[in-house]
User: Fold these one by one.
Assistant:
Number 1:
Amino acid sequence: MPKPATPLDLLLLPSWLVPVEPAGVVLKDHGLGIRDGQIVFIGPRAEAERFVAAETRELPGCLLSPGLINAHGHAAMTLFRGLADDLPLMTWLEEHIWPAEGRWVDEDFVRDGTDLAIAEQIKGGITCFADMYFFPKIASERVHNSGIRAQIAVPLLDFPIPGARSTEEALHLGIELFGDLRHHPRITVALGPHAPYTVSDENLEKIRVIAEELDAPIHMHLHETAFEVEQSLATRGERPLARIARLGLLGPRLQAVHMTQVSDEDLALLVESNTSVVHCPESNLKLASGFCPVERLWQAGVNVAVGTDGAASNNDLDLLGETRTAALLAKAVAGSAAALDAHRALRMATLNGARALGLETLTGSLEVGKAADLVAFDLSGLAQQPIYDPVSQLIYASGRDCVKHVWVAGKQLLDERRLTRMDEQALHAAACAWGQRIAERTE
């Protein structure tokens, strides 16, 4: 058979290839070809051998999957990791985190904290993340430099925040950032109303109008705790999700983060509006916020993605670990060992995340024509043996230390567990310096 005229940039030959779409498929002895940042070939190894490739990588003992997608977080809060542990949500926020942010958060903090978060995520197999934090322009610059993919949500609250003296100023900066990055190949911009209890009806209506005009996603904490729902019923006479629906914000562009409280009426609203839910199990557990009914949502047809939340309440950005926790917790909450099996858990951490962020035609699965956003997990260790189902071993018997290689749009960001575009020693030094400064002022 004649060789193709156009060579591949890279041919990968793993032991197992898990495309995620179609669901539940594991391909043995297959190859994946990349050209110009896109997947252009998936097929049996014998067929792959007819291709000319600038580089061929054998990946024995490795599972090749779509890169993980962290659908919710606050990247720069890595610099507050462990600062205020073992506290309920509102005490944690009002007495510790918000005062610390008022004192410390500036452009330098966001630059260094976002770099630290990006590096941690790449080393954990994450190729795309959703960020919602102050100084979003700085965060977008760090994403651009690093090579990772991200959705940057512009935080919007009714009171002044670092980088914006008012909601109007934050909206103006958000519109400007959206325009600047409209054609960026790896960055999208969303509007980020913080939560129902921090954003008024008037401002939510402004956000809805702007989101519709820009066709921008909306990223929002919703139904994070029972107290949030009870407070809304007491003061407004309606549940927060019903209020958001009344104001016209529900729909495919809305990413509802947490949703630990879901009534029958809430479920109907989520299904009818095609709203995505972002599940953050470990943060919810640590803050005792409640349990998102993942299996119930999934069976009703709601798209459920997974996120780590910020490192200040988790305390890591380990999406593989988060996905394992999600799978185990879903079984306990549903009272069924069959709930959220390993293959669906991986789908939640990949394609469902892409769908929630509006990126499902670009990333989230291994399909010809999609971006080459990939992770190679090394399953050759003793702890993974024997291997009957590699996806089951990945979810239930592996940690993020098994992440060996990461590519985004065909560019390798992690090679043999080493960052290719970021200086790990410099990141470590910067984080330690911030920690020393913050600790000295809080003692």
Number 2:
Amino acid sequence: MRSDKQDDPVIVVRGLKSAFGEQVVHEGLDLSVRRGEIFGVVGGSGTGKSVLMRSIIGLQTPVEGEVEVFGQPTINREETELTEVTKRWGVLFQGGALFSTLTVAENVQVPIREFYPSLDGALLDEIAAYKVVMTGLPADAGPKFPAELSGGMKKRAGLARALALDPELLFLDEPTAGLDPIGAAAFDELTASLQKTLGLTVFLITHDLDTLYAICDRVAVLADKKVIAVGTIDELLALDHPWIQEYFKGPRGRAAIATVERNEHAPEGAE
């Protein structure tokens, strides 16, 4: 999963301060995401995981700090100045965030139409159909509306839209939330497969320990208004911070570890 270019950061955040009125969410937050890795972000409720992602992609303006994506600053920039950078990332928002009045195929076409308005309709249909199948949806999902899809299918449709412009960087906000264990595991496998096949860098917000163990190269822990630790699961387990210990070594953490150990010792080719 991890690229050889480990010192080539795709995302750099320095001294980020996020606040809503007098409520400070982040204070002096620093973060760096390497090219080609699946980078997990975890933290308790209210630690601002989604706020961090929105700040990186320009949907949230922080009080202080700097954010760079692909070496370009994204804070306080005109939308037109960020067009070339924006085309290089895709976003799957929590729940899919599909337009309910558009079909799946039309949803996938939205970012393409925004950046390439002159493209022929037949080509748009062809691209959308390809992205739908790429994310594991049946070919007949394209003409359907979001209300006709299951929760897992909506996630995949949202992922198809996020991949519409062939991005280098993929943001996933709680992609397995609301899915049953089988569906969540399947989505993890899809994410890892797409990352490897397409050479993506993935910024993944999750609370799902199975996801962290299964596909993340490194994990950042948000607490005390900043990133308190970044590392592999093993590196984080070696730290003595109370929240980290409780999160990774609690009942759910132990279950995730047991799953990993079973998979590691399973006979080759066994499911």
Number 3:
Amino acid sequence: MSEQGKVHLVTGGSRGIGRSIALALASAGDVVYFNHYDPDDSAADETIGLLEDAGVEAFGQKFDVTDAGQVQAWVKEAFEAQGRIDNLINNAGITMDGLLVRMSPEQFNQVIQVNLVGVFYCTQAAAKLMMKQRFGSIVSLASIAGQIGNPGQANYAASKAGVIALTKTAAKELATRGVRVNAVAPGFIETDMVNTIPEKLQEAMKAMIPMGRAGQPEDVADVVAFLCSDAARYVTGQVIAINGGMMM
């Protein structure tokens, strides 16, 4: 049983935005459980090292968030080991871009499974325990694509719009049990995923941002940390845009 510090669960926490969130959330004495689906454990091991350097106990595990059984086992393991779950961050996500008329059923379904169904599985598993303890915060990663759409990303945009609707519904259902549910909607953030986009297209997207630059993972992580803090104790059912003014 964790006598001090908070317990944080982060999906897709081995690198990028997920790693930044884990580092922003955790203070010395806290415990972080994160999952990943990388080909190997090198990034996860690096994240564990960074967290341990900050005085945080960290556990990384590889599993697929689209497997409900594995998700339930992960959440249950954390709760039974620590006696509580303070925060769940649904960050895991993928892209498989393509124009609508050329997109295969597999491309569409796989993105929906990871980005939306995976969020449902994790939220449901954590919510059952948070309702019993009568506290907790859940924050899911949506996207500007889920708010305004994006050519070539019918699957991704649909999955993130679904995350927004799921967030608002869960917030209404869980509020009386002391559980807050929010989402953040990042815009153009410099990550490994974004770096696969051709440079010319990246520059065109940056030109659409009033602040004149792409965001950094830390820009997202700091807002997530706020939503999980006591400073946001009266905030639930909200979608916070983090896009440098790209959408107003």
Number 4:
Amino acid sequence: MNRPLSAARGVSPWAWVLAVSVHILFVMVLVFGVAWQHQVVAPVEAELWSELPAPATVTKPPMPQPAPPPAPAPPPPAPAPVKPVQPAPPPAPSAADIALKKKQERELEAKKQTQNRERAVADQIRQQRAEALKEQQQEEAQRKKAAQLAKAAQDAKAALIDRYKFAIINKIRGNTEVPEGVPSGTTLEVDLTVLPTGEVMMPVKIVKSSGNALYDQAVVRGIMRSQPLPLPAEPELRREFRTTHLQLKHEK
């Protein structure tokens, strides 16, 4: 017995306060619960209708109408027409200005005329030079052509003279009795004076001896036997044989 009391004495005072508070709260809940159950209920009244009343008309609120579009803004006023600024009329030229302008026009016209005359003279000079150059070229072409023709004629004449010289040499060889022992290749050069008839004027001029007197004399005798020498028919060509140089070479 002593031990439980001592244990009860050791409990905290706060625990005792809490336990008492819980019991008080429990008692209050019981008291209020009983009082609520004994509260007098008010009687309910009801009315009996032979017909049901028409239901109250529920008025629907009007639907909101869309706001009308805003009125278009009025167009801006047209700008006032701008009147063009009329330039001020130029001042009337003075008599001095008119005179100066006329003088300048005369000088310009005189300058144009001078330029035209100079241009015409230059064109004329160029034309004259072109014509002179053309004539010079034509003359040069004619000179070249004449020179070509002259050279061709000279070449033809020389060829013809050579052909007649070859004929004269062949005739002289045919009339020359070459002595025995004259070696082949022995050459004699002579100058002959030939008449237009083909006759040879004596004496025969030995220009270069062959070194063999017998051969030289035999050739001179052959020249005399070959008269008249063959000459061209043209008198102008015959004159080319007035002095004829021959080279006579012995060939076996």
